[in-house]
Amino acid sequence: MGKGKETDIRVVDVVVEFEPVEFRAPLKFGGRVIDRTDLINVDVTVENRRKKRASGSGSMPVGNIWAWPSDVVSAEQSEATMKRFAERLAELVGAYSEFNHPLDIVYQISGEYEHLGRVVAEECGAPEPMPTLAQLVAASPFDAALHDGFGRANDINSYNGLSEEFCHHDLAEYLDDQFAGEYLDRYTLREPKPRMPLYHLVGALDPLTEADIERRIEDGLPETLGEWIAADGLTHLKIKLAGDDLAWDLDRVIAVEDVAAEAQAARGCREWFYSLDFNEKCKDVEYLLEFLAKLKERRPQAYERIQYIEQPTSRDLRAYPFDMRPAAAQKPVVIDEALTDYDALLLAREQGYTGVALKACKGHTEALLAAAAAQKYGMFLCVQDLSCPGYSFLHSASLAARIPTVAAIEGNARQYCPGPNARWAKLYPGMFEITDGTVQTGLLNDVGLGF
Questions:
Q1: Domain count, the chain
Q2: Are strands 438-439 and 196-202 parallel, antiparallel or unpaired?
Q3: For the whole model, what pTM was predicted?
Q4: What is the pLDDT of residues 55-64, one digit of tens each?
């Protein structure tokens, strides 16, 4: 570690708790259905060298269905193992006694994730070790809490504590020599963007029209796609696709286009966008190319609305080293599930991926570093969530608002699990009460992570 800075923090105390969250409607993706989750909620008390103490917070859904898909580990077992990982990580973080910047605290502690993942999997009787992605998700609320506490202890916004004034190392320490002399302040904004478009999720089970509804939920929220567009003024739609059923995928996008066109015409909107998420189910790039060709032929206007395509093939880039360049020549193709570190980003770039999906659930530190690398390489950037409600959504939104080239943010907890949003909506109504398809990210400008 370099010379001590007065703004360095040390950990005084760590508390981790789990909060059950029920879904108002099931969400299907990647062939799997989720209807409940637990939030991992973390509070970390920190102290800077001036002896000023503060509490930082982090929250994230367990997200095991997404982070740990497995043929041999049940959903119940993966969830229990990830929660146990969080409990054991609380002990590790609590034992970290040095003063340091959050980037370095997380960087050093993350070196223990793989070993801890193996130990915890054995303790819980899981027949395979925790995947790296599952480790990152379970660790992410600790990462967020440290950055939040750092800002609060020093009475600054955490995104403004990323310059040489506060950091011990330049980015070459965490990435490579191309980043020598550069710090994260170069790749982040000093003020959040005032407003950002919100991507609304169209899940595989979601009703597009009244005819798709067997029985209404009747909880006061919209239920069909047309109703959501009208109520929230949506202009960005993320469409979940099968990836292994070309006819269904084409019909689904065309059906979304038809419903959206009618709803947008009714409110006088002429421009809207789609992102397509195959959840790594495409067996090869040829499937994606055929899909794009047929969509362009059948609904050219829907094809033109595609802003980007998300992780179409397997997250295991080494086992499935497809050449993504033919698809990326048409639309940005972003790495998502495969993005677990800088090496994965470099490999994806070699294979022709042209974009990066940032997620707070992979860790605040990791997201900031990936954002810097993506900007350096001129890659398309987006921020997506893990059906993040309440605090976790605000964290994700603050990240998107501070990365210059991110154009929109995903936020679908309001559709599926809005319960934890209630208390935060009172404090930040512009982030949860949506009428023009945007969220008021300029509100996220307080100390710590901004809220």
A1: 2
A2: antiparallel
A3: 0.97
A4: 999 999 999 9
Q: What is the tens place of the pLDDT at every residue in 114-169?
A: 999 999 999 999 999 999 999 999 999 999 999 999 999 999 999 999 999 999 99
Instruction: Quote the tokens at residue 300.
Output: 């050219």
C-alpha–C-alpha distance, residues 446 and 451, integer Å? 5
The pLDDT of residue 3: 73
Please indicate, yes or no, whether residues 80 and 225 belong to a single structural domain of this protein. Answer: no
- Verify that 167 and 284 share a domain, yes or no: no
Strands (E), 148-260: 196-202, 236-240
**Contact assessment for residue 36 and residue 20, using Cβ atoms and an 8 Å cutoff:** yes
1 in a structural domain: no
pLDDT at residue 1 in the model: 43
For residue 16, list its beta bridge partners. Answer: 42
Same domain, 328 and 391: yes
Give 343: exposed, middle or buried? Use CB within 10 Å, 0-12, 13-18, 19+. exposed
What rounded mean pLDDT belongs to the chain? 97
By residue range, what is the domain housing residue 20? 9-179
Same domain, residue pair 172 and 271:
no
243 Rama sector, left if φ>0, alpha if ψ -120 to 50, beta otherwise: left
Q: Could you write out the three-class secondary structure of 72-86? A: CCCHHHHHHHHHHHH
CB-based burial label for 96 (10 Å; 0-12, 13-18, 19+): middle
CA distance 167 to 160: 11
Q: What DSSP state is assigned to residue 448?
A: B
% of the chain residues with pLDDT over 70: 100
221 and 367 in a single domain? The answer is yes
Tell whether 22 and 80 lie within a shared domain.
yes
Specify whether the CB–CB gap between 359 and 337 falls below 8 A.
Answer: no
Query: Which CATH number is 360's domain given?
Result: 3.20.20.120
Q: Is the pLDDT score of 2 beyond 60?
A: no
